[in-house]
Amino acid sequence: MAQLWQGLTAEEWDTPQVVVHRGRLQDNIASMAAFARQHGVQVRPHVKTHKTWEIFAMQQAAGAVGLTCAKLGEAEVFLQRGVKSVLVAYPLVGTRKLERLFELMTRFPAAEVQTIVDSPERAAELAQAAAAQGVELPVWVKVDSGLRRVGVSPGAPAAELVREVRKLSGLRLLGLLTHAGHAYGAASYEQVAEIGAAEAGCLLETAELLAAEGVTGLGISVGSTPTVKVSGAVPGVTEIRPGNYVFYDATQVRLGVATPEQCALRVLTRVVARPEAGRIVIDAGAKTLALDKGAHGSDAVAGHGLIVGHEGAVIERLSEEHGVVRIAEDSPIRVGDVLEIIPNHSCPVANLTDELTAIGEDGSLETWNVIARGKMR
User: Fold this and answer.
1) Residue 47 to residues 110, 148, 221, 244, 356: CA-CA distances in angstroms?
2) Sign of CA dihedral 321, 324, 327, 333
3) d(CA 141, CA 150)
4) What are the strands, taking DSSP E only, across 195-313?
5) Are 272 and 335 in contact (CB under 8 A)?
6) Are 313 and 337 in contact (CB under 8 A)?
7) Do the beta carbons of residue 307 and residue 313 sit within 8 Å?
8) pLDDT tens track of the chain, all 377 residues?
9) 3-state secondary structure at position 368
10) How many CB atoms lie within 10 A of CB 148?
11) Which parts of the sequence belong to the D-serine dehydratase-like domain (predicted)?
12) At what angle do helices 72-79 and 95-107 cross, to 10 degrees?
């Protein structure tokens, strides 16, 4: 913990506080950028993980070609800061969503706003709306590589949707896109790697079907931090969209994707009670740590985060403002101590706080506002 505190005492921290180790953050960003250069792919990071301008600025300086987000509200706050290329990788359904999409395109004419289609009906709706606005909307065909969430099946169904999109005026087809989020439920890194290979493979096989009839030059975009260094290394992939890699978390550690030392985002929390020898209460509850025990429904992580330096301690349950932790009866932890937690899932933790405290290697502190916090629409 000393490497984070740099001379500040426990009394000087107001807890719970979400902190980011700047050096580790920069190392994570640099590592992904180096991977992308090595394999000749572009990085379009998903900013839902951090939602802060300072971190995206680091990603952009490292070569990111734009950003990925899930919501128009997220897109708007980054477009306001001058971002030139934004992918809203989420189905935009309904009149109000389309109005807002075209409002952004009108307000920020120098920026490219991309989105996805996953069915002929949605493609036709977007095309009609774009044509009515007199614009050409760049779109990706979203393919389901196994998450069973959003996307058309790979192979013949995805190829058919590509054909349909190419017929529609108002749309400009960018390529094929997928997200292998089901990797979060993997039992081992070997299984993660298998999913990553299949993630890229299903897009490239679809592209081969289309190439046989003369449709070439399609972009191939993959995402998911656990799989990205497998799928992103497959020849033919053109773009990667990882998000969690900037911070990592206990879930990535469980999957074998990262080490605890690489986890840049931590929660500092204070022990507020020790009602009995084997139980303490901390001031970080569900409103700080979130309730995730692994992304996409995975429940494979024990407890609600890793307590650094106290690996035997288990955060057994959370209420809104309290965390209940099981410890050894002879543990030296005392009321008033500040503990450091690597959360299970760093993305919702960042979204639950107004600001991140960035800690430099020299102990300097900066405050980074979470500018897209709560942008759920």
Assistant:
1) 20, 23, 16, 9, 14
2) positive
3) 11
4) 219-223, 239-241, 265-276, 279-282, 306-307
5) yes
6) no
7) yes
8) 344 445 566 677 899 999 999 999 999 999 999 999 999 999 999 999 999 999 999 999 999 999 999 999 999 999 999 999 999 999 999 999 999 999 999 999 999 999 999 999 999 999 999 999 999 999 999 999 999 999 999 999 999 999 999 999 999 999 999 999 999 999 999 999 999 999 999 999 999 999 999 999 999 999 899 999 999 999 999 999 999 999 999 999 999 999 999 999 999 999 999 999 999 999 999 999 999 876 655 566 789 999 999 989 999 999 999 999 999 999 999 999 999 999 999 999 999 999 999 999 888 999 999 999 999 99
9) strand
10) 9
11) 264-360
12) 10
User: Which residue matches tokens 């998450």?
Assistant: 147
At 269, which amino acid appears? T
- Residue 145: burial class (beta carbons within 10 Å; 0-12, 13-18, 19+): buried
Tokens matching residue 281: 């209460």
* Three-class DSSP category at 262: helix
Structure tokens at 243: 């998000």
Any idea which residue has 């024990």 for tokens?
A: 302
- Distance, CA of 265 to CA of 273 (rounded, Å): 25
Locate tokens 């426990």: which residue? 10
- Sketch out the chain's domains with CATH numbers: 2-20+258-369 (2.40.37.20), 89-242 (3.20.20.10)
